[in-house]
Amino acid sequence: MIELVQGDITKISVDAIVNAANSSLLGGGGVDGAIHRAGGGIILEECIKIRNRQGGCDTGEAVITSAGRLPAKFVIHTVGPIWRSDNDQQAQQLANCYQNSLSLAIENNCETIAFPNISTGIYHYPKKEAAQIAIQSVQNFLSQNNNQIKKIVFVCFDEENFEIYQEILST
């Protein structure tokens, strides 16, 4: 089941929330900063351990930490592409963010997961294209993975993204 809400992803009670992280995993602005602030220092500590082990996180890949003080159990950190031009590689990298996050959720026995609008903030991915990729990626994943994930929530912080997702999901 896919749900759509407008709000703050740090307040969503699911097994895992997805963080639109940067490759350093050390926190930043937007969703990334909000998750680190709300979740507390344990998330950063675990991100540093991951960084020390593997050197960060590549675009399209995902890693998982506990959620600290957040109502979720886990935070899945994924790095979206920085928009430079309309090309298939960036679209595939963004799709990989959703697919790899969902795979990691299944590996960690998560049945519910919430996604922000990956790459549409400071990475400037066009919102409508990003929403289409997000929804298509999630629908493809669900059709191939036998309902292991019971609920996916798209959490839109701003009204513009919310309306874009609402329009695509209603067609």
Characterise this structure.
This protein is an alpha/beta fold. The protein has one domain: Leucine Aminopeptidase, subunit E, domain 1 (3-Layer(aba) Sandwich), CATH 3.40.220. The chain is built from 5 helices and 6 strands, in the order ββααββαβαβα. The chain has helices at residues 30-39, 41-54, 88-107, 127-144, 159-169, and strands at 2-6, 16-21, 62-66, 74-79, 112-115, 151-156. A 6-stranded mixed β-sheet has the order 1-6-5-2-4-3, with helices on both faces. Helix 3 (88-107) crosses helix 4 (127-144). The longest helix is centred in the middle third of the chain and has 20 residues, at 88-107. The two termini are 16 Å apart.
Number of DSSP strand runs = 6
Fold-level CATH name: Leucine Aminopeptidase, subunit E, domain 1
Biggest sheet strand order reads 1-6-5-2-4-3
The CATH first-level class comes to: Alpha Beta
How far is the first residue's CA from the last residue's CA? 16 Å
Secondary-structure element order, N to C: EEHHEEHEHEH
Number of helices: 5
What spatial form do the alpha-carbon principal axes imply? globular
List the main descriptive attributes of the protein structure presented here.
171 residues; alpha/beta; six-stranded mixed sheet
Please render the helix and strand layout as text.
Blueprint: E1 2-6, E2 16-21, H1 30-39, H2 41-54, E3 62-66, E4 74-79, H3 88-107, E5 112-115, H4 127-144, E6 151-156, H5 159-169
Parallel strand pairs: 1-6, 2-4, 2-5, 5-6
Antiparallel strand pairs: 3-4
